[in-house]
Amino acid sequence: MLSPQSKTQSAKTLNLSAITKEAEFTEQDYIRFRDLVRRNSGIYFNEKKRNDLKLGVLKAFHYSGHPNLNSYYNALTGDSQNVTLFKTLVSFLTVGETYFFRHFDVIEKQILPRLIKAHQHDKSLRIWSAGCSTGEEPYTIAMVLDHLLPDLAEWKIFILGTDININSLDYAREALYRPWSLRTINDYYKNRYFTKKEGLYYLIPSIQSMVQFDYLNLVEDCYPSPANNTTDMDIIFCRNVTIYFEAETTIKVINRFYKSLKEKSYLAVGHAEPSSLIYDQYIGEIFPDAVVYRKDTAAKKEMQYKTGIKTREDLFSSHRKQASITGSSQVTSTLAELQKQIDKLSINGETQKKVSAVSKSEAEKKTETIGKTIPAVTPTPEKTPVTIPVKVKETIRTEEDLRRAEATEFQMFAEGIEQFKNKQFEESLKTFKSINELYPNNGRALYMTAHICANLDRIEEAKDYCYKAIQKDSLLIEAYYLLGLIYKEENAFDDSIKMLKKAIYINMNFAIGYYEIAVNYFKLGDQVQGRKYLKQTEKILKTIPPDERLGVLDDLSARELGMMVKMWDT
Fold this sequence. Notes:
Low-confidence stretches: 1-23, 306-397, 402-406
CATH superfamily of the largest domain: Tetratricopeptide repeat domain
Strand content: 5-15%
Number of strands: 10
Distance between the termini: 44 Å
CATH class of the largest domain: Mainly Alpha
CATH architecture of the largest domain: Alpha Horseshoe
CATH topology of the largest domain: Serine Threonine Protein Phosphatase 5, Tetratricopeptide repeat
Number of helices: 24
């Protein structure tokens, strides 16, 4: 979406010194242009970006030829709104920076090869770079496909690049770049796909012709549509674009992308994008240099069945919305709803015992009723979880083990949590290991096994189960967090920082994660980075009620974390 780098045909035409003539950019001007831009483009200029908005508006205003700001604003908002005028305004406001092969290693070596393999039968790929800026990203995709496909001529490749900045699109169509845009490209791609003349790099025509560029405003309800070629996509790239949107706008955009994608296709976003909670419809994969989400309806339903939740809840802020459970009369009648409460891992004391007792009772009743009328079946996501008779392995001999093997996944999880709450760690560990054996895809159970092992000082085993949990659910924030704590205790501070940064990539408001990163940097003697992450922790804590609990199965409050932050002040 962003940036004609410094290609500024407009700057040549515009006398920038004339901007000083419009000395007044009042509070009213800020509010009305801010709201206009937000409403029509989704881009939001908060108070910290007030000056950026002012400079962009004043440049566009003087370029427009209107006599004053009121006249200019009226031309943008009146009955005969000037669409071209608004597009020009946006081109002055969205100036960023991009380059070839930016964070592309995983895309080149894993994601695109997966898609190629999946489409050998029809030899067809449809790819969309949404917010393509000056073209580096879609052209990178074209070069990689040309390299990966020796039979490229037999394939139907469609690559679409769209942006809201009309100057950027003009620049992209020219396919002429300065050396700075090629700063991370290797010699193979540079020599094969570019010709150099007078210090500039010209993309070869065969690659240039693989990409189609069009104007598209992501906040408009104009996609998916065959009219603008935004349907049936195999992968959509939208990296470092929605960071300029508010959450509500981002959700709408992401939902439209979901409809634009084929089943089992991908959405690639940047690490700086909002929390993974916004991408809840997708199944996420997090890599060192890329975040990729997959549209896989069947797998998502299975995941919802396994976890018992339909929307990902951040376990570290579960107290924010949790309803108070005071007795069995308030416990929901369905096991699926009760599962949501258990999975939040925030039920305490006698209430937990009551919930557990109710859950067992309900499960036993359903088992007795259903078991008499229908044969055992494999549970599906659409059905209420019921007790499923399981073939007992020869290693299971005791009556207790038989009971576990026949219990529902939910009931076992609830029992394991109750045991953990009561500090019956060995019993709880046994329960979760049984879940791991019977339900190997339950990432939360694997994490709980790691958590308990860490409490029992079985550190290597804890690390092993954390990595297993991440294998099953790459966005399991608590597993990265626990690994970060373990590595910190082992004085492996770089490894700790790496894991904790993955946690804050998943949730940018994960206050305790920022705090632990700060501690690691202080241990390494890096005061600058340490202070930076402490300040971010303080910033997040200001948005959280003091008594809100931040930890997983512990009692750390926002107020207590704030006190810990202040302890570093000297």
